[in-house]
């Protein structure tokens, strides 16, 4: 299951009654007042950590380095499947059985912060300016940071560079050029010049960047009102739908595994995705395919804003080893640690300085993601976003299937979002 899909699945999961894992018996900081600054002394005691998916499977390898630098500390990592993670955390909060630290999907922070279970990030723990703006914003709720970004993902444009060369085109930079580019991909033999989600689950992640690029947003400037029926959203929906109406995008959902094969075969000329697809395409396409595809920053309108996701790290108010937990989080946010983490997990660094390492700066693919992260954005950290985004998913599908005009769809989205509310 790819990272984008897994984050969305969990964000809409309901609460299940699952057994929460208890914390270790170590002390060394639990008595500190919430919000107190964290000193530079070595960490000590037991630190329990929950991490999801691949991160949970490989974090032990990195934690071993932290234990060498902090001989009095013991990090115990519990790998939690993405499918049950949201509900397991919710159940642990309700039962007062949270770990010290947990990885959180970026769209969960608002929900869990609203319960009072997350401790605000201690003042001076990290420099928020060292992170990408869009990434740092995923940890902020109501002007207060709860945790820090751990790793980031963003989307760029993957395209068949051999098709583009044959058509005499460079990577598109504007909406107009993207439309021309998609048509050229079809002329080169692709059945879908640009693969887009036609609606349904998680399609909001594909259409929302177009609204941002047009100058729109999800909430008003004061963060109190949804603005999902604005002229900018209308323009984004109409432009997005035009790819289906003009036959440049097939109205078919391509799940994990399908998009790679269709791109390699030439049935898909271009698509938007995260960094994980670089290695997948190299592996599945074979040695020669590396010269047949490239990546570029997303084309844009007023801006070239892309979607950003990833994983954050938060410490719970009930942590029994609060100081050591934050010290572990701080250590994971250091540039050198983040470079090591990429080598282990292939997760992209959330700290900008880490991108100066040749691992990223000299790589023709990864360097593009680094540039795109300078203009990337996440949805607002509100508890109700999972409900609101599912409305966008369903209404967009009605538009691309031709069963509802754009204006009616946006009116429906705005009306339902207003009823749902922001949860603040």
UniProtKB/TrEMBL annotation:
Entries under InterPro entries matching the protein: SBP
Domain of life of the organism encoding this protein: Bacteria
Keywords for the protein's UniProt record, in alphabetical order: Signal, Transport
Pfam family, one: SBP_bac_1
Gene3D superfamilies named among the record's database cross-references: Periplasmic binding protein-like II (3.40.190.10)
Keyword tRNA processing found: no
PANTHER family (alphabetical): MALTOSE-BINDING PERIPLASMIC PROTEIN, MALTOSE_MALTODEXTRIN-BINDING PERIPLASMIC PROTEIN
Family statement drawn from the similarity comment of this UniProt entry: Belongs to the bacterial solute-binding protein 1 family.
Record protein name field: Sugar ABC transporter substrate-binding protein
Lineage, highest ranks first: Bacteria, Bacillati, Actinomycetota, Actinomycetes, Micrococcales
């Amino acid at each position: 299951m790819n990272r984008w899909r897994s984050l969305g699945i969990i964000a809409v999961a309901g609460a299940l009654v699952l057994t929460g894992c208890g914390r270790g018996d170590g002390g060394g900081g639990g008595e500190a007042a919430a919000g107190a600054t964290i000193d530079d002394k070595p960490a000590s005691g037991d630190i329990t950590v929950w991490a999801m998916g691949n991160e949970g499977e490989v974090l032990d390898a990195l934690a071993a380095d932290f234990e060498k630098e902090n001989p009095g500390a013991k990090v115990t990592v519990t790998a939690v499947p993405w499918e049950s993670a949201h509900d397991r955390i919710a159940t642990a909060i309700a039962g007062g059985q949270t770990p010290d630290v947990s990885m959180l999907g970026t769209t969960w922070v608002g929900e869990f912060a609203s319960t009072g279970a997350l401790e605000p990030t201690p003042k001076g723990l990290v420099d928020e300016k060292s992170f990408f703006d869009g990434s740092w914003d995923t940890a902020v709720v109501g002007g207060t940071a709860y945790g820090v970004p751990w790793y980031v993902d963003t989307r760029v444009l993957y395209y068949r560079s051999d098709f583009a060369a044959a058509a005499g085109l460079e990577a598109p930079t504007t909406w107009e050029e993207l439309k021309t580019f998609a048509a050229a991909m079809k002329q080169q033999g692709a059945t879908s010049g640009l693969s887009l989600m036609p609606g349904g689950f998680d399609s909001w992640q594909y259409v929302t960047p177009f609204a941002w690029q047009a100058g729109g947003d999800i909430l008003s400037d004061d963060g109190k009102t949804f603005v999902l029926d604005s002229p900018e959203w209308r323009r984004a929906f109409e432009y997005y739908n035009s790819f289906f109406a003009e036959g440049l995008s097939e109205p078919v959902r391509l799940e994990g595994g399908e998009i790679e094969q269709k791109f390699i075969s030439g049935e898909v000329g271009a698509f938007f995705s995260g960094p994980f697809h670089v290695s997948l395409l190299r592996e599945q396409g074979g040695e020669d395919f590396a010269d047949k595809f490239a990546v570029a920053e997303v084309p844009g309108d007023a801006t070239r804003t892309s979607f950003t996701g990833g994983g954050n790290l938060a410490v719970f108010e009930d942590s029994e080893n609060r100081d050591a937990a934050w010290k572990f989080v701080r250590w994971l946010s250091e540039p050198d640690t983040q470079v090591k983490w990429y080598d282990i997990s292939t997760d992209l660094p959330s700290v900008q300085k880490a991108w100066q390492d040749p691992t990223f700066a000299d790589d023709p693919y990864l360097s593009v993601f680094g540039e795109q992260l300078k203009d990337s954005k996440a949805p607002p950290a509100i508890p109700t976003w999972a409900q609101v985004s599912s409305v966008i998913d369903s209404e967009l599908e009605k538009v691309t299937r031709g069963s509802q005009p754009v204006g009616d769809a946006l009116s429906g989205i705005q009306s339902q979002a207003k009823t749902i509310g922001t949860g603040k």
